[in-house]
Amino acid sequence: MTPHTRIYLIRHGQVAGFDQARYNGQTDVALTDLGVEQYHLMKERLAETKISACYSSDLSRCAIGADIICGQFGIEPVRRSELRELNVGVWEGMTWQEIQSRWPEQWQSRLADLVNYRIPQGENPLDVEARLMPVIGEIVTRHSGQEILVVGHGGVNRIVLLNAIGAPLAAMFNIEQSYGCLNIIDYYADGRATVKLLNG
Predict the structure, then answer these.
(1) So what's the architecture of 4-197 in CATH?
(2) Distance of alpha carbon 5 from alpha carbon 184, whole angstroms
(3) How many Cβ atoms are within 10 Å of 120's Cβ, its own excluded?
(4) Phi/psi zone of residue 67: left (φ > 0), alpha (ψ -120 to 50 degrees), beta?
(5) Residue pLDDT, tens place only, 181-192
(6) Using CA atoms, how far apart are residues 76 and 69, in angstroms rounded to an integer?
(7) Which residue blocks in the chain are alpha helix, DSSP H?
């Protein structure tokens, strides 16, 4: 087998307000009871892996899960702010309906150009990619040949996955990322990456 570095990339568990279309962004929303349970199920699912390091967003909905899963491996999760979700600026915590009502022109502008449109006082996907992918590269290099857990967010995970397969950011929402899902990506020394599991 060709040597590779494997990243187990998971999305955080279900959060409060999940039943409304809402931009949580970098707001530190709480996990639901189901969200916590999803982490315990993932802990069991990953029990037979050889995870040797763990990185997570520093937002609690990710950090709590990293603690739950990584205790069994005797490793301390590393919190990285670069792994945070897209900063949605003035839209933080608002429902889609509220945004469409209060910011109709800006909402349409974002729909028209998802990749380049920057939300007022926030980020666009290019900004997230610029802060995120160097950290992923650092993790792969630092832990060459190992198995690593990364606990992230829906938007962040989509960007990592798109980069792995060489797809454009405009395809972000062609990828589903359910609460508590698992993705597996293998990175090779020649720069190739293979997505072994998506939204599992």
Answers:
(1) 3-Layer(aba) Sandwich (3.40)
(2) 10
(3) 10
(4) alpha
(5) 999 999 999 999
(6) 10
(7) 33-45, 60-70, 96-102, 104-112, 125-142, 154-165
**Joined tokens for residue 123:** 């980020």
- How high is the mean pLDDT of the chain? 96
pLDDT at residue 2, rounded to an integer: 78
Tokens standing for 133? Answer: 């992918």
Q: 127, 199, 96: which is closest to 157 by C-alpha?
A: 199
Name the residue ranges covered by the structural domains of the chain.
Answer: 4-197
pTM: 0.96
**Cα gap 133→138, rounded to integer Å:** 8
Return the bridge partners of 187, or none.
Answer: 5, 193
Ramachandran area for residue 95 (φ above 0: left; ψ -120 to 50: alpha; else beta): beta
Candidates 109, 93, 74; CA nearest to 17 is: 93
pLDDT given for residue 19 in this prediction: 87
